[in-house]
Amino acid sequence: MTPALLSDSPPRSSPLSFEEQDFIDRLIVQHRGRPGMLLSLLEAIQERQPNKYLPVEVLDYLAARTGIPGAQIYSVATFYSLFNLKPQGEHTVCICRGTACHTRGSRNLLERVKLQLGLKEEDEDGSAEKMCATTADRRFTVRTVACFGQCALAPVAEIDHSILGHVNERALEREVDAIKRGGQR
Amino acid sequence: MKRISDLSSFNDVREAGLSKLLPDRPRIAIGMGTCGTGNGAESVYHAFADAINTRGLGMNLARTGCFGFCAAEPLVNVYLPGKPLVILQRVQPNDVPGILDDLASGRMPTGLALCKIEEWDHITGHVRFGVGLPEIPHWHEVPFFTGQKKIVLRNCGLINPNEIDEYIAIGGYQALYKVLIDNNPDMVIEAVKAAKLRGRGGAGYQTGIKWEFLRKAQSERKYIICNADEGDPGAYMNRNEIESDPHSLIEGMIIGGYVMGATEGILYVRAEYPLAVHRLNSAIEQARECGLLGDNILGRGFRFDLQLVEGAGAFVCGEETALIRSLEGKAGRPTPRPPYPAEHGLYGCPTNINNVETWYNIAPIVIKGPGWFTETGSAKSPGTKVFSLVGKVNNTGLVEMPLGTPLKTFVYDVGGGGTHGRAIKAVQTGGPSGGCIPQEMFDTPVDYESLGQLGSIMGSGGMVVMDEDNCMVDVARYFIEFTHSESCGKCIPCRVGLDKSLYYLNRITQGKGTEADFDLLDDLSRMIRDTSLCGLGQTAPNPVLTTMRHFRHEFEDHIRAARCRAGVCEDLALSPCENSCPLHMNIPRFLQLLKEDRLEEAFVSVVMDNPLPASTGRVCQHPCDNRCRRTGVDSAVNMREVHRYIADAIYPSDRFDALASDIAARRKPLTGKRCAVVGAGPTGLACAFYLCMLGHEVMVYDSNPAAGGMLRYALPDYRLPKDVLDREVELIRRTGVQFTFNTQVPRDVSLNDLDGQYDAVFLSIGTWKESWVYLPGTELTGVIPALPFLEAVSKEQPVPLGKRVTVIGGGNAAIDSARTALRLGSKVTIIYRRERKDMPAIPEETEAAEAEGAEIVFLATPHRIVGGPDGRVQAIEAVRTKLGEYDSSGRRRPMPTNEIIRFACDTVILAVGETVDLDFAKASGLKIKESGLIEVDRYTLETSRSKFYAGGDLITGASNVSNAMGYGKKAARNIDRRLMNVRRWEEVFPSFEYDQAPPAHASEAPRHHVEEVDAAQRATTFAEATIGLAPVDAMEEACRCLRCDVRNGDH
Amino acid sequence: MPQKISLRIDGELIHTAAGQSILDAAKAHNKFIPALCHMKGLSSVGACRLCIVEVAGVGRLLPACTTPVQDGMSVTTQSDKLRRYRRIALELLFAERNHVCAVCVSNGFCELQGLAKRLGVTNVRYPYTYPKVPIDLTHPRYTADQNRCILCSRCVRVCAEVEGAHVWEISGRGVGSRLVCELNRSWGESTNCTSCGKCVQSCPTGAIAEKGFAVEEMSKRTDPISRLATLRAAGSDNKPGVIL
Hints:
- The structure holds 3 protein chains of 3 kinds.
- Chain A is an alpha+beta fold.
- In chain A, about 45% of the residues lie in helices and about 10% in strands.
- Chain A has 2 domains: about 20-80; about 90-185, Glutaredoxin.
- Chain A has a 6-stranded mixed beta sheet, with helices on one face.
- Chain B folds into 7 domains: about 10-150, Glutaredoxin (3-Layer(aba) Sandwich), CATH 3.40.30; about 175-375, NADH-ubiquinone oxidoreductase 51kDa subunit (Rossmann fold, 3-Layer(aba) Sandwich), CATH 3.40.50.11540; about 380-470, Roll (Ubiquitin-like (UB roll)), CATH 3.10.20; about 470-560, NADH-ubiquinone oxidoreductase 51kDa subunit, iron-sulphur binding domain (de novo design (two linked rop proteins)); about 575-660 and about 990-1040, Fumarate Reductase Iron-sulfur Protein, Chain B, domain 2; about 670-770 and about 915-955 and about 965-970, FAD/NAD(P)-binding domain (3-Layer(bba) Sandwich); about 770-915, FAD/NAD(P)-binding domain, CATH 3.50.50.
- The chains are: A alpha+beta, B alpha/beta, C alpha+beta.
């Protein structure tokens, strides 16, 4: 009835480092038996990954240690839009596609930044409206979010977790340029 | 933090908190919700912190939540002991030194003051700040707050969300204490039931009844859950509530846990709200330390604890069964009900789920009782609801209003109307599950039932205001795109049905949709609504169904005419300017041709799109200005003046002759079809030009001795010199159009005659009949209607004009009359019943009239014209009006006051609107609408009589030159289609090769305005009042175009 | 002994045991209600929405598979509206994936095809999506062709609930939902699969099939699984790995 406890069965030979294994084991102990355990585990694990994604080896290890079927973990990891199964870029530009932002032209912002970073349709995962695309050099990931809840500042974009309100195409272009240049120095 | 176990320890914390809220020295609190931070509150906070530190000032600095007025952020609360709390708005770091200077010397910084609060009802407690500062308005006197009642938001923006003692100071956890002391859970449930508190998450189910189910459920383990997975795009009240006042939520849940017999509570918060998660976690921690969570709460032996779970980005988890599955570690796919969560919820245990805002109402109900609660709101929906008012309104933010408040109060009073004075078209309520409510229905009270009747829902309280720049079909498509990507995929109707709905909506917004698509979409939407498994699918078609119901004409425009009036659907327009142009001129093309120094080709491009460019170049209302994307950089490209420049550069030059021959040579071979055009005004001329170019034989009839209609006989010479018009008519004549002047239809030639002689007849008579107002005294000598006056002046006939003229009206005819009268030596006053921004006249014209010495009196309604014993006008009396309620056009209705103003004058010019003289049509088999205009098919302009088409003022009422010409052009296209039965319209237009690359960077050039002749000089003469752009200015202006017509990847 | 109740289905008075679903009660009295995701012995998920019925006094349509019978209930299983909606649901399924019956192993035995025939769906008005979906031939004995999958989740449930292996799940969401084997492995690499074949037999279409069958050869038997599941529910044990 309650979620599985730390499984005694040792994992199949895992490619994870001892540190990583230990981190996951501790997390499991901390969350076991609590509602929302799997979500919390996946969130914490992804946050710790340098490229903010969930590698399959990690999921494998998690399945073995928690006893949660791999199929269920995969189902959860692909259902929620917060989880990434592919490595993300160094910088994330996130465009809000909420209603207020849409009515104030956020689609143009998205198109503009994609053009600026040279992203094409084929780079995208998922359907057009839930886009998430990473540049070939892994420097930038452009993604959308359903709504930041910053509607009074519409249109809104977020660059590396800082919110830009009332942003227009020019301002966004400048911000992204600044990051681009910053890296070349 | 000290553990609270009895009344005295409770009071100790309370005292500590009060001394923070009302310290004996100045306190500065910065609104630092996410919205404040997004507007720069963080740097304001640091500016204060640094300055207080370096100056060594004895002041308290605190962070608080958001007071709701997001448009005025960053908000800063300042408190001086004994004075009211003052809220400063739009504070920037460089304002900080000044504010501190004032405070340090005991003064209140009033410069940035938004409002003051003398005392505040926290409902669970009361805080008196102080009285005084009469120069600052009370908070509820600020329009944005007028009518708001803060129950849920009672503490937001006033206390520090990170300090539990401040919450306790304003009566926090008193309700919990009372409930635990009373030890009568049933009584609490009865109170919630009696308060008729309905779930604030959207469905509106009675909270008390839900609580009773869980209380009665028999189980060792029960859960209560707060649904803070606020996923509706456009709604953010839960975020703000949690960020600003987390303890009210926690207190509500502890009370809920106690009365329902649950020992575990879960807060499911969306991960996109990191600040809310952070503040809630720290609030939970503090509550635990104080003994308000955990074992033996408040020493009463009750055990309850809370746990926060972050959702991971799935809108469907707002659905309670999906949320439960998500907590169980599964994908958030809803499961059927029954079984209901109250019997079989999380891990199979009885579970209660309530929305964030529902929990916020609990403590007030416990403290004040259900009777107090039901005093607010409507009978079926008591209490208040927090709405996020966003989109195209001036004042955006969170507003808490009593349920049942009419929609127009939100939009116009609180929201302050549309941005940039644009007309508001609709409000979208309820997010992706709701619908769009058209402006005509803004009287609707906002409650669960009323919105439901319109096909929308209240939902979580999102209100997104849409104006004329929003395409409703696009909005419907947007929401389907959203639900389509958020559908869990479990049930067929929602998974596949929404996919196909999106397909049809995409087709329609791309102009490829058919009427069959519309019907399939309609049918499919109903099926999805009626058969889907969960609320997401059942409500997902609402945006489509309500749009089909309330904005059907927009769907028709897209399907039948491949036209998106708002200019949003990019595939249906070349560029925003082209879309807004009634003649659909290819504006980027002529700008680019000019930029490439190809003036002659630019001229051909212009003339082929618009056969009267020198006229429209002077008098067009230029709707393109409002749509130009360049507005986002600096200001719109001056497209009107550039095409005037192109026309003026060619017409009087020696190149004209050759170009006119070239254009005439483009005429298609004769078709043998004969067409008649009735009326040689701009509408008729445009239609005749295109019919002629298409190879038809065209005869234009007009009662006047020359062509031009209103352009010649109503527009004064200083706006449009006659020689300019003559050259334009000459070009049209050169293409082969024939004219019969001094011949009135039907007096001299009957409609039946035309029917017999021609294959098609286009009626384009202008609005020459002045509407007469009912006004005592109009029979007096000296009262003259505007158009006959203007006509007489243009024909150089004598006009009986006195020394002091009063013009009644606010349209172009009023301004033209006023400026003409000024030139004839009179002193002029214009009386208009509304405000300046409501005037239909071109703003530049109004300004020019004022510069020339006309006085304009706004908000005055003529009451009577006073005559002397000689039967001549002596004066006019008007009633001073003030602005009242919003009318159905979204403008405030002028309401009469008792004040009468009198203007002495000897002439009154009535310019209150013109109508068409339709007497001729009545016996001719042409159907006339109730409005007194001819009925035509909106898309083909065919009248009820075969062969006969009509356009311009005849079908719209008085309009403007470009609109009228647009109809002439459209009629020509449809007449040709009918006569020839093939599509050949495009064949008339030459093609041009020109550069297809947008400028890499917007040029740093400001807009070139047209130069005006000095006011004193021009006011005495009928010579043209403006000087067109110089060649170099026109070129620079052309270079300013951002080339929206070039699509990404086109080059 | 469960309580006996009476209800009307399409006007006919029926006496039956409380606690069962409308669908079971109707079936027991030879009343046909179309359904695809329902399978006796597995939990009901109410996903295909074909079994929707009208219940007097209830504003919305209810799925017969998850709605329990109630005393005095009056159920309508056939009406113009229901027929229209069921037809749309089937058309949507055909439009979603690539169901080419002529080359399908289950042609003639397919439940989707059977229902379409029975409900008179002869054409699909909606455009086909033609998604690119995987065909998995890595398992030594079975094949999984997602072109034929209708996402009914019968394989998921039979594997998790009856076999206890939980090899299958649905990944993604919305139209992007796909049947997935464990951590997105190919079926042949599955560590948990017992090759019991229950998913094969439960699949209503030709999506999961046995190798070695040609077109029109793959008939399936769900009855043994249903019996096994019922026995299990009644307490008798079942060893995983029993091959049907």
